[in-house]
């Protein structure tokens, strides 16, 4: 299930947030040698965009492990492309309905294995991303991505426009490209279709009651893990929204 | 400049033949000063060094020479393309292999054939395939803008070729009728039933019937799924 971690429910996800900052340290600092503009706290990485209006989408296993994550924020405030205007040919996209995504990570044990079309961790997150757009009235996502992912984005049939040309980033000759992606309901429908996920996958916890943990909130709201407990297709068809009633084969 | 790229993107999405993609490809890279564009080795990464498959290449003496002399074993550009994720120029290769005479020899032979400089773009597709697109030209000026544009042209060319190749693989299986395969190719190029009807001189309803039958045989609910099935694994029996 994809959890939307916002400033209102962040205290439910203290462990996951720590784990995410550690993953980010591992991927961006230890492996790729990033340092510009980052704050390193021991083995955790932070930057100026970890803010109150930032939302983390986290694809979590039922026992709370991170499978994959994205960081999202509205573009009404400064965001990544304001710091890297060389990637944008023209005005930098901005508006309430445009959000930026950064820090896309899939945990190594949940990456694509040979012969698999897509990593499930990714396809679930993609559906969650567009479901989240519907909850906020987001029409577009901007993102600066490594150019090597562009063929995959094209082949997934996402609707997007290029904001500029590929240009170098970092000091290893890698290039990145900025794109703006359609995030309307058609995109959600398209992603559900190509990834064969025909149920709601996003969960946004309300602010917890005193002393509640995430599992308490899920129990109180009677939210049942759709993906992991109900695998067969007909059972999935019986689900409605993120809230499902337990399906029995009888 | 961005217009050329946007037009090429859209051409690649709608092309239904190799010939069409190739013509648009040539048109696009010439805008940026390249004279030839070659895609090699549409396959998985592990195949690269033992199978040089040239698709959509200009028919040249050099390609024959390259194959006959087994240059793939020493070609510094081929070697570099499997170990990097971004575009690079032959000049960079020349510098990096300055102590390797056999590597330099490959570059010298290319030079003799009139390929003065090249820009190489390795592409890892979302479907697990790998290709290397090489642009050459006497007056290829590799500034950041040209590099960026050629990189994008390479990506969309690869994606279009891959789409057509996978449909070919899928449609070469016998379970679908010739008409069903033809109709599916047009569906994959984004044509509506009405448009396909116009192209094939049959009625819209007939087109629809072909698509519906094809979907039944593939076992999917929507036509988009049918195309995705063909595109993504190429093993679905069409």
UniProtKB/TrEMBL annotation, chain A:
Please list the reactions this protein catalyses.
a fatty acyl-[ACP] + S-adenosyl-L-methionine = an N-acyl-L-homoserine lactone + S-methyl-5'-thioadenosine + holo-[ACP] + H(+)
GO terms assigned for molecular function: N-acyl homoserine lactone synthase activity
Which keywords does this Swiss-Prot/TrEMBL entry list?
Acyltransferase, Autoinducer synthesis, Quorum sensing, S-adenosyl-L-methionine, Transferase
Q: Which GO terms describe its biological process?
A: quorum sensing; signal transduction
- Report the PROSITE patterns cross-referenced here: AUTOINDUCER_SYNTH_2 (PS51187)
EC no. given is 2.3.1.184
Entry's Gene3D superfamilies? 3.40.630.30
Please give the family membership noted in the entry.
Belongs to the autoinducer synthase family.
- The protein, known as: Acyl-homoserine-lactone synthase
Automatic annotation (TrEMBL), chain B:
Q: What is this protein identified as?
A: HTH-type quorum sensing-dependent transcriptional regulator RpaR
SMART domains to which the protein is assigned, alphabetical = HTH_LUXR
What sections of the sequence does the record tag as coiled-coil?
none
Quote any Pfam family the record assigns.
Autoind_bind
Q: Which GO terms describe its molecular function?
A: DNA binding
Spell out the InterPro entries in the cross-references.
Answer: Sig_transdc_resp-reg_C-effctor (IPR016032), TF_LuxR_autoind-bd_dom (IPR005143), TF_LuxR_autoind-bd_dom_sf (IPR036693), Tscrpt_reg_LuxR_C (IPR000792), WH-like_DNA-bd_sf (IPR036388)
- The gene name on file is rpaR
Question: What GO biological process terms does the UniProt entry carry, in alphabetical order?
Answer: regulation of DNA-templated transcription
Q: Which UniProt keywords apply?
A: DNA-binding, Transcription, Transcription regulation
Instruction: Supply the source organism for this entry.
Output: Candidatus Phycosocius bacilliformis
Q: Which residues form the HTH luxR-type domain?
A: 169-234
Record PANTHER family = DNA-BINDING TRANSCRIPTIONAL ACTIVATOR DEVR_DOSR (PTHR44688:SF16)
Keyword presence, Protein transport? no
